[in-house]
Amino acid sequence: MVRELHALYSNLAPMADNNSPIPQHPSTGKGTTKPKANPYIVSFYDAFVDRPKNSICMVMEYMSTGSLQDIVLRGGCQNEKVLARLATGVLHGLAHIHNKRMVHRDIKPHNLLTNRQGEVKISDFGLARTLNDNSTTTKTFVGTLLYMAPERIGGGDYSYPGELLMLVFSCSILLEKKLTFRHF
């Protein structure tokens, strides 16, 4: 996951002293400019090691209205214009990720967060993978089973198109207000 965060957020610095209780921060030396955040990806601000708890803590952008799954639980989204705006935002985020040769591998309503401004952003890059120069697909069986593209469930290679299919699947769940077996 750390490799994927470095690829997505070029301002993430390695935490060299893991014994230090003080958070390690990116270098802000002379001539260093912070890259502009992508408006369709939840912003990453900082990370530090919590040695007593044996964990890595990440400070991320606060998305005040929760996830698209929360919208499903509140009755779904019946307004096609709103749904189109949400889908367009996720498509922009996926384009950014895919341009960096990454696959998210867990696109689902739970990982698509919203805020009071009506923006939607992709979150949870814990399963993301950067594709190498020699391959445009991956085969590892990871993710949430109910939200996997058919080629992943079948054990085949998968790539960017599977993530687009899962976005369509997520939008249909928003419209129908629940996950049903009609989706399969």
Give the SSE map.
Elements: H1 2-8, E1 44-50, E2 55-60, H2 68-73, H3 80-99, E3 102-103, E4 112-114, E5 120-122, E6 129-130, H4 150-153, H5 160-176
Antiparallel strand pairs: 1-2, 3-6, 4-5
Can you give a write-up of this model?
The protein has five helices and six strands; from the N terminus they run H-E-E-H-H-E-E-E-E-H-H. By secondary structure, the chain is α+β, with helices and mostly antiparallel strands. The protein folds into two domains: 2-60, no CATH class; 68-183, Transferase(Phosphotransferase), domain 1 (Orthogonal Bundle), CATH 1.10.510. Strand 1 and strand 2 form a beta hairpin. The model is unreliable at 11-32 (pLDDT under 50).
Features of the shown structure:
single chain; 184 residues; alpha+beta; two-stranded antiparallel ribbon; two-stranded antiparallel sheet; 5 helices; 6 strands; 29% helix; 12% strand; globular
